[in-house]
Automatic annotation (TrEMBL):
The organism of origin for this protein: Pontibacillus chungwhensis
Name the UniProt record assigns to this protein: SDR family oxidoreductase
InterPro entries for this protein: FAR, FAR_NAD-bd, NAD(P)-bd_dom_sf
Domain Thioester reductase (TE): 7-235
Length: 358
């Protein structure tokens, strides 16, 4: 039986790369892509670049609506045909307001879960969570841990946590695999990425001060967990078809992460050719970025600074065990940072790649 993939979150960065990978390895598969109405034209343009795109169907829908806003005839067809569901649609903005985050990340996930319960051919539901459901926890964070009394740095983390708790409650009803990526960067070979957020805020910050002595921000002892998109996609694709990955959680994180200070220095040396020579307290930078005028000029979200002090290590023993022998490993950041910076330098002035900072 040919596989049929139902995927939310297209044409987002991770979903687009995931589909390209699945198309490449599974020529007989069909794809049903749930797309929000204001992304329809972008979605059609995106699939034109894909081989076998004639086997891709775009469905206008909305995860915040009952039955995902899909008509009865399409629902009936999906119920009979879909074998794999990837739920990636979410609000990823660290500065997202609570009501929007809850509506999309929590209610949206509940709607997707309920929508797929009747799927008669379903072999796997792959839910994209985040490593940062750990909130403010410190020390080693394990893949089989979730509800540990943690608090959260923002509504993105909190609502992704609430959504994952809910996904776990469906484990006895659906064949579920949960993916918890770290901070996703561009491709390790090309540097290609869709948006300059996350660690790219460091690059945007350094751009503003390139002609001045470069400061470190805070002590920088915290570990920062960065993973390239190709590792996330390759690992997810394998785990989605691995029978032993059912009912399990996987940290797609760097098993040998660098500290914030090391990453910042690496970016500074690669981007502007300078090594930071003094330190600004992270509290000072955070307070400065609380001023809208400064925040907009630097083009860095204040919430980013919270991750400069997070004392957590994301253990990925379960992931490493399942990927053993596949050749799928997380590359070392120092080995691909040049590609990330080169891509940023070539595309840093393109409006569609910049996250609007308010």
């Amino acid at each position: 039986m040919a596989r049929t993939y139902f995927i939310t979150g297209f044409p987002g960065f991770v979903s687009s790369n995931l589909i390209k990978k699945l198309v490449d390895i599974d020529h007989d598969a069909r794809f049903e892509l749930l797309v929000y109405r204001d992304q329809i034209q972008k979605a059609y343009h995106a699939i034109e670049d894909m081989v076998h795109y004639s086997k891709i169907t775009i469905i206008e829908g909305d995860i915040t609506k009952s039955e995902l806003g899909i008509d009865e005839g399409t629902r009936r067809r999906l119920t009979e045909e879909v074998t794999h569901v990837f739920h990636l649609a979410a609000i990823y903005d660290l500065a997202v307001p609570e009501d929007i985050a809850h509506r999309v990340n929590v209610n949206g996930t509940r709607n997707v879960l309920d929508f797929i319960l009747p799927f008669s051919s379903l072999k796997r539901f792959i839910y994209f969570s985040t490593a940062y459901v750990s909130g403010d926890r410190s020390g080693s964070i394990y893949e089989d841990e979730l509800e540990c009394g943690q608090a959260f740095k923002n509504y993105y983390e909190e609502t992704k946590y609430e959504a994952e708790v809910m996904v776990h409650s469906y484990m006895n009803k659906l064949p579920i695999t949960i993916i918890r990526p770290g901070v996703v960067m561009g491709h390790s070979k090309t540097g290609e990425t869709a948006k300059f957020d996350g660690p790219y805020f460091m690059m945007r910050f350094l751009d503003k001060f390139a002609r001045l002595p470069i400061p470190y921000i805070g002590g920088g002892e915290a570990l920062i967990n960065l993973v390239p998109i190709d590792y996330v996609v390759d690992a997810t694709t394998f785990l989605a078809h691995d029978e032993t990955a059912k009912s399990k959680v996987f940290h797609l994180t760097d098993p040998e992460p660098l500290t914030v200070r090391e990453v910042y220095r690496l970016i500074a040396q690669t981007l502007v050719g300078k090594t930071p020579s003094y330190t600004l307290p992270s509290s000072f930078v955070s307070k400065t970025l609380s001023l809208s005028l400064i925040r907009k000029w630097v083009q860095v979200e204040r919430e980013t600074i919270d991750y400069f002090t997070l004392q957590a290590y994301y253990d990925s023993a379960n992931t490493i065990k399942h990927l053993k022998g596949t050749g799928i490993v997380c590359p070392r950041l120092a080995d691909y940072m040049t590609h990330e910076v080169d891509y940023y330098k070539k595309h840093r002035h393109e409006p569609e790649k910049l996250i609007k900072v308010n």
